């Protein structure tokens, strides 16, 4: 098996002129002020914050590009693990499991098919050799996690669609890094047989998943013994950055390792936290970390891009944009058309969003700059990738929220709005009652104070439950129309719980297989009949 060489970012990147510490501090202050102004203007104009940052960076290219730059080593070794870990600890495994098939289809075969289409068009359209063309294909088949999640934070979308988008972009980053490294192996060795390539991908992927799973589980007992939330923060930072570095040093995918570690920690570690305030502290820290990294990445993207340089090669950039859009169109519409044979079909309106949501970002630019200096066509790769990233962030970034609203994907009925508000009230009150029980058990509250506070929350619980029952009765009587999506979301969770319990009983040989299979088949039919949530 060919040994996977590490990406030599430092030798690939053209280092900007070194600035002194005081100069860097001044630049940092200026960038923070620019980001603050961008946030205010973005809110006023109702455009994406990410798009605003990129546009704000373009006019100051010549001012800062000599002192600061989008260092690919910094992006891959610091920014990327932070962003992946922050996204994965906020991902519910049960939601991910229910949408795993479309996610796997898009992040796996979809990414490969899109890369192949882009590479073939670029190879013959721009006259590049196969290795540079394939590198462009891999780089531009990647969908930016940050941009897509940012859009769905601004525009409400069905939970299944947002889960598919978040899951695809989460695993797409890892797939892009694996494919990029595999192409560098081919470039370094001169050849790689299909068997060796498949074996390399499996080792890197499964090895990364194993490393991430082991480190994630090893961190759980340490986390549960830390009663100080600040110490817990230090553990999670070390876990996110350390997992990536350990994975890379072992020759497996550090990105896959961080994804798995974040999923394990977020779904098994956070629920074991001693108090709700500790969990909020931890999640708030990672939300701030992700926001800060996003701010600097996209502002630096704008600073890094030279519009005058891109204007000179505009025809090539437009051709590449057309190529990656075509690759996305074919991979989404073709692959998802066959999804109905083994999973719930994806509505066509959702597929339109998935196509236009093919936004590029920091990882694409970092990989472009990380291409070895000795590779013929490296300058062309960097220029066309930078142009494609600028187009996708600005044009697609502005058009995507408009498309979501135009397709009425984000439409929310009055029933759903009222039900959601009551559910929030019910969830919050019951969580507060649970926290009161913990405080009483630990001796912080006296019994009298506990009972008084518990009763006040119970009043809110009873009122919310009464109103929810009234809405349910009106829905059944037809007074509120046929809106079933909220109830179907609950039914889906119940059916999945039934399926998991029965499958577990089968694995333990508690029930016979010939009785379980018809029951599970019946559950699958009920799941397919439910409306999308």
TrEMBL record:
Location of this chain's protein in the cell: Cell membrane
Keyword GTP-binding: no
Keyword Transport belongs to the record: yes
Assigned keywords, A-Z: Antiport, Cell membrane, Ion transport, Membrane, Sodium, Sodium transport, Transmembrane, Transmembrane helix, Transport
Entry's transmembrane regions: 24-42, 49-68, 74-91, 103-124, 130-150, 170-189, 201-223, 230-246, 252-270, 282-305, 317-341, 353-375, 381-404
Gene3D superfamilies: 1.20.1530.20
Domain Cation/H+ exchanger transmembrane residues, every copy: 33-406
One Pfam family it belongs to: Na_H_Exchanger
Membrane topology: Multi-pass membrane protein
Membership in a protein family: Belongs to the monovalent cation:proton antiporter 1 (CPA1) transporter (TC 2.A.36) family.
Protein name as it appears in the record: Sodium:proton antiporter
């Amino acid at each position: 098996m060919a040994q996977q060489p590490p990406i030599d970012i430092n030798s690939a990147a053209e280092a900007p002129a070194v600035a002194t510490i005081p100069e860097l501090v001044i630049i940092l202050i200026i960038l923070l002020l620019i980001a603050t102004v961008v946030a205010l203007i973005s809110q006023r104009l109702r455009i994406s914050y990410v798009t605003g940052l990129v546009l704000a960076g373009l006019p100051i290219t010549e001012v800062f590009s000599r002192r600061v730059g989008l260092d690919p080593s910094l992006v891959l070794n610091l920014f990327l693990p932070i962003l992946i870990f922050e996204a994965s600890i906020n991902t519910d495994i049960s939601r991910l499991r229910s949408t795993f098939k479309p996610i796997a289809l898009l992040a796996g075969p979809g990414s490969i098919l899109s890369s192949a289409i882009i590479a073939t068009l670029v190879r013959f359209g721009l006259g590049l050799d196969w290795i540079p063309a394939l590198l462009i294909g891999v780089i531009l088949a990647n969908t930016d996690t940050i941009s897509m999640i940012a859009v769905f934070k601004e525009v409400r979308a069905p939970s299944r669609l947002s889960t598919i988008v978040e899951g695809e972009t989460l695993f797409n980053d890892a797939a892009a890094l694996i494919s990029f490294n595999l192409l560098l192996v081919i470039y370094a060795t001169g050849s790689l047989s299909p068997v060796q390539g498949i074996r390399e991908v499996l080792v890197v992927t499964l090895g990364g998943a194993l490393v991430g799973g082991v480190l994630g589980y090893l961190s759980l007992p340490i986390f549960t013994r830390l009663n100080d939330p600040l110490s817990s923060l230090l553990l999670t930072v070390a876990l996110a950055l350390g997992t990536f570095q350990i994975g890379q040093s072992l020759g497996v995918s550090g990105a896959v390792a961080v994804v798995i570690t974040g999923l394990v920690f977020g779904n098994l570690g956070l629920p074991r936290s001693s108090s709700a305030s500790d969990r909020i502290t931890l999640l708030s820290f990672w939300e701030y970390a992700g926001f800060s990294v996003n701010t600097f990445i996209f502002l630096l993207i704008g600073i890094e891009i030279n519009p005058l340089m891109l204007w000179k090669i505009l025809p090539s950039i437009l051709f590449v944009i057309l190529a990656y859009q075509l690759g996305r169109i074919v991979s989404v519409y073709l692959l998802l058309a066959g999804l109905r044979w083994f999973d719930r079909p994806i509505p066509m309106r959702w597929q339109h969003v998935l196509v236009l949501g093919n936004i590029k970002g920091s990882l694409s630019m970092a990989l472009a700059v990380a291409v070895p200096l000795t590779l013929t066509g490296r300058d062309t790769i960097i220029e066309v990738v930078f142009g494609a990233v600028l187009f996708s962030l600005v044009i697609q970034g502005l058009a995507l929220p408009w498309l979501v609203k135009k397709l009425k994907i984000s439409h929310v009925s009055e029933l759903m709005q009222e039900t959601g508000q009551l559910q929030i009230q019910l969830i919050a009150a019951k969580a507060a009652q649970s926290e009161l029980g913990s405080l009483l058990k630990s001796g912080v509250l006296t019994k009298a104070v506990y009972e008084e506070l518990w009763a006040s929350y119970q009043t809110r619980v009873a009122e919310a439950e009464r109103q929810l029952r009234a809405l349910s009765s009106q829905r059944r009587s037809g007074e509120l129309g046929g809106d079933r999506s909220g109830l179907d979301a609950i039914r889906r969770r119940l059916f999945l719980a039934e399926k998991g319990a029965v499958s577990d009983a089968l694995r333990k040989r508690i029930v016979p297989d010939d009785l379980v299979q018809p029951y599970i088949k019946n559950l699958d039919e009920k799941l397919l009949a439910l409306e999308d949530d």
